[in-house]
């Protein structure tokens, strides 16, 4: 049976970011659901603002190609995002936009997000838990060819949502996370194009 590879990252690189804590929880849940999990930080993929003139002069920036290769090497993604003014944080949007520009890599025709299973989580101190931003993020990912699963996890009142062990304190929210991770693992397995030796 295929063990799906899931790539996990947060949409913020701020020290102590709620989205990073959310990604920590998701990483543990995905492993419990049977996935092989890789955790990365967008801080390791520094990118200029998307600029077609820049792309025309120098091509896709190397960090975007590296991130695209990470995505291609995995069967699914879990993105834990903060919410900025009821929408997507600019760091995350810029990274997604650059990766979506990749069409060729090492002479191969590629589209990193095409038919990739994706799960979304958010965390915010608001009562909505960042859910408004996830609507926009879902639209962006669907526009670049990803298959975003229906289940998602929005963590409200994030400053008090995590216990001293980093787990979710609220049982209902914890169940949402568990369900979201389980469904992502199942769908990533179904969509995987990898062939086990």
Automatic annotation (TrEMBL):
Show the coiled coil region(s). none
Pfam families attached to this UniProt entry: FMN_red
Residues in NADPH-dependent FMN reductase-like domain copies: 4-158
* SUPFAM superfamilies in UniProt: Flavoproteins
Q: Which Gene3D superfamilies match?
A: 3.40.50.360
Q: What is this protein called?
A: NAD(P)H-dependent oxidoreductase
């Amino acid at each position: 049976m295929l063990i799906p590879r899931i790539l996990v990252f947060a949409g913020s690189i701020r020290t102590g970011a709620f989205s990073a804590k959310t990604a920590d929880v998701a990483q543990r849940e995905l492993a419990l659901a049977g996935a092989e999990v890789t955790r990365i930080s967008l801080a390791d993929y520094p990118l200029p603002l998307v600029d077609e003139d820049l792309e025309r002069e120098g091509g896709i920036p190397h960090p975007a190609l590296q991130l695209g290769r990470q995505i291609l090497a995995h069967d699914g993604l879990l993105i834990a995002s903060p919410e900025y003014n009821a929408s997507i944080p600019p760091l995350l949007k810029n990274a997604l936009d650059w990766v979506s520009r990749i069409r060729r890599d090492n002479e191969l025709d590629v589209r990193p997000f095409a038919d990739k299973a994706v799960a979304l989580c958010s965390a915010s101190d608001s009562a909505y838990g960042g859910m408004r931003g996830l609507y926009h993020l879902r639209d962006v990912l669907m526009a670049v060819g990803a298959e975003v699963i229906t289940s998602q996890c929005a963590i409200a009142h994030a400053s008090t949502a995590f216990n001293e062990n980093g787990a979710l304190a609220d049982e209902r929210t914890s169940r949402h996370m568990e369900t979201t991770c389980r469904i992502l693992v199942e769908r990533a397995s179904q969509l995987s194009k990898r062939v086990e030796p």
